[in-house]
Amino acid sequence: MTDTAIPTPDSPPDQGRPTRSYARLAADESREDFSLRYAPHSFRRWSPSMVAGTALGGIAYLADFAIGASIVFTYGFTSGFASILTAAAIIFITGVPIARACATYGLDMDLITRGAGFGYFGSTLTSLIYASFTFIFFALEGSIMAQAMHQAIGLPVQIGYLVTTLIVIPIVFRGMGALAKVQAWTQPIWLIGLVLPFVVLAFHAPGSWGAFSSFGGTEGAGAGFDWIGFGLGTGVALSLIAQIGEQADYLRFMPARTEANKRRWNAAVLAAGPGWVIIGAAKQLGGAFLAFVALEAVGKTHALEPIAPQIEALKPWLGSFALPAAAIFVIVSQIKINVTNAYSGSLSWSNFFSRVTHKHPGRVWYIFLNLAIALTLMEMNMFAALNKLLGFYSNVGIAWITAVAADLVINKRIGLSPPYIEFKRAYLYAVNPAGFGAMVIASTVSILAFFGLFGTYAEAFSTFIAAGLALILCPLIAWLTKGRYYLARPNPVNGPDADVPDLTATHLCAVCETAYELPDIADCPVQSGPICSLCCSLDATCGDACRKVTDAAPVLMPLPTVRTVRHDVKPA
To answer: Which of 197, 238, 378, 492 would give a disulfide with 554, using CB separation of 3.0 to 4.6 Å?
Structure first.
C-alpha cells in the first residue's frame, strides 16, 4: 500500500485474526488511487487549481461538436439552440451539490450515491449506468479520433479504432499523477486548436453567424421554434449529465477547505464540477457552427465528423497545412478525454465487481474490460446511431443524477437524510428506496415515454419526465419511510465535521493490518475491532452481522493511532 503501518507498542496486530493481503496492483495506491474508498487527506496533496485543471482537461472532448451539430442539423438552429442551453442549465444545477459533496468528503460518484439515498447494493446499478457512460463516450470519442487519422494518414478506421484504444492504456495505468501531467502538458495545444478555427472564420466569413442563426436544419425542421424538436434535442444534450461523475473522480482529491483557501477552493470546485458544462454548451454551439459552414463543401455526413469542419475552417490561413493541424488538434483532444473515460470506467467497474464478487484484483485490470466494450461499439459503428443512443441513455442518467441531487439538496436539509455522506457497508442498508426507488420509477416511466407509449409530446419530453419524477419521488419516498433506510446503525464518526479529536489520525485495519484515516474505518463486531471500508466490502462470510447489532458499543473512539511511513506519491 502507499502507507506502510508501524503499530505502536501498545497496539500489536492480533495474530489470531484472519488477515488479507491485496494483490500487488490493488495494493499500490500510486496506481490504485484509492479507487474503492475514501481519498485520505494524506493523499490529497494537489492544490485546488491543479485538481481543477486536471478535471477540466476532460472537457477537451469533441463529442460536443458532433452532438451540437447533430441537434442543430436535425431540429434547426432555434430549437437546437434552446435545447442546448436548457440542458446546460439542468446539468449545472444538478452538478453543484454533487461536486461540493465529492470535494468535501473525498468520495467518488459511486460512494456519494451509496449514501445519498441508494444504499450499499442500490448503487451497484448506478455503477453500471456510469460504466456504460464511460464506454459509450470512449467509443464516440475514439470514432472521432479514428476519423482524424484516416483523413490525415489514410489509416483504415477499423485499425484506427484499435490504435485509439491502445494509446491510452499506459497513461491510465499510472493513475492520477500521470493524468494530471498529460492534461497540463496538452492544454496549450488544445486551447490554440479550439480557438483558431473561429478566429479564421471571423476574418474570412464574418456573415456566417447570421446565416447560421436562420438555419432550418437538414431534415426540414425549419428555422422557427418547435416544441417537439426542442424536447428531443434537449434529451440528446442531457445524455452528458453523467459527466459530473468523471469530474467527481478528480474532485475527490481536492484538499480540505480551510479559511485560507476557501475562495480558491469554492472557485475550483464550481469550475471543475458543474462549470464544465458552460464550456461544453459553447462547444456544442461552436461545433454546430463549424459543421454548418463546412456543410456545402463536405456534405452532411462529413460535416458531422469534427475533423472535416476543422480542416475547412483552417484552410484560408493554413492551406495545405490545415489537414495536419486539424488532425493534431483532434488527436490531442481525444487523448485528453479518453484517458478520463478509461480511468473513470475502471473505477466504476471496480465498484461494481467488488460488491458482486467480493474480490478486488485492482482498478487497472478493469481498464481492459472497459476498453474492450468500447472497441466493440466502435467496430459496430455506433457513431451512426448517435441521436437515438444518447437520447435513450439520457433517460436513465438524468433519473440517477437528479435523485442524488434531490437527496443532497432537499432530504439532507430538511432532516430526512443524515447530514453527512455515509458510504461504508457496515452502516448502510443494502437498498434505500428513497433514491433507488425514485430512479427506477422515473427511468422506467421515461423510457416508456421515449418509445412512444404515452404519445408524441411525452416521447419528446421523456427526459423532463425522468427529471421531474426523480426530483419529486426521492424526498417523497424518504418522507413516507421516515428516512429509516439511510442508516442500518449509528456511526460514531459522522463525517468531516464530527466532534472527534482528529479525523486524519490513522487506525489499523484488523484484516489487512494497514493504517487508514478514521473516515475510512468502521467498527466491526465480527473482527471485534476496526475494519477498513474495502476489507469490509470484500468480506463474503460475515453475514452483515454489524447491521443486526445496532446497540453494540462502538470500538472506534478508543483506538490508538499508528505511525505511518509514506512512500513518495508526488503531485504533478
So the answer is: 492
CA distances (Å), origin 183, targets 32, 156, 569: 19, 28, 18
- Looking at residues 122-130, what average pLDDT do you find? 88
Instruction: Assign 508 to helix, strand or coil.
Output: strand
Q: Taking the CA of residue 464 as centre, how many other CA atoms within 13 Å lie in the half-sphere pointing to its CB?
A: 16
Measured torsion, CA atoms of residues 29, 31, 32, 34, in degrees rounded to the nearest 10:
50
How do strand 515-517 and strand 506-508 relate by DSSP bridges?
antiparallel
Q: Is the dihedral of CA 469, 472, 474, 478 positive or negative?
A: negative
Instruction: Please tell me whether residue 220 adopts helix, strand or coil conformation.
Output: coil
Per-residue model confidence as pLDDT tens digits over 407-459: 999 999 999 999 889 999 989 999 999 999 999 999 999 999 999 999 999 99
Q: Select from 225, 117, 228, 241 the least CA-distant residue to 462.
A: 228
List C-alpha distances in Å: 481 to 117, 144, 433, 468: 12, 47, 8, 20
Task: Pick the closest to residue 469 from 460, 480, 479, 477 (CA basis).
Answer: 477
- Whole-number Å distance between alpha carbons of 432 and 422: 12
| Cα 85 off chain centre by | 21
CA–CA separation, 104 and 87 (whole Å):
26
Cβ pair 279, 76 in contact under 8 A = no
CA 447/CA 235 separation, integer angstroms? 12
For residues 32 and 534, the answer to whether their CB atoms sit within 8 Å is no
Stretch (H or E) spanning 530 = strand 529-532
Strand partners, 524: 529
Rounded CA-CA distance 127/287 in Å is 31
Q: How far apart are CA 84 and CA 490, in angstroms?
A: 44
What cell was used for 479? Answer: 418522507
**313 within 8 A of 152, measured Cβ to Cβ:** no
Give the mean pLDDT of the chain: 84
Q: Is residue 545 over pLDDT 50?
A: yes
CA distance 150 to 544: 54
Percent of the chain with pLDDT over 90: 42
What is residue 164's three-state secondary structure? helix
- In this structure, the dihedral spanned by the alpha carbons of residues 137, 139, 144 and 147, taken in order and rounded to 10 degrees, is -170
Q: How far is CA 442 from the centre of its chain?
A: 21
Model confidence, pTM: 0.85
Give the C-alpha distances (Å, rounded to integers) separating 514 from 12, 32, 241, 425, 517. 12, 15, 37, 19, 10
**Cβ(416)–Cβ(478) below 8 Å:** yes
Give the mean pLDDT of 152-171: 91
- pLDDT tens profile 328-360: 999 998 888 888 888 888 888 888 888 888 888
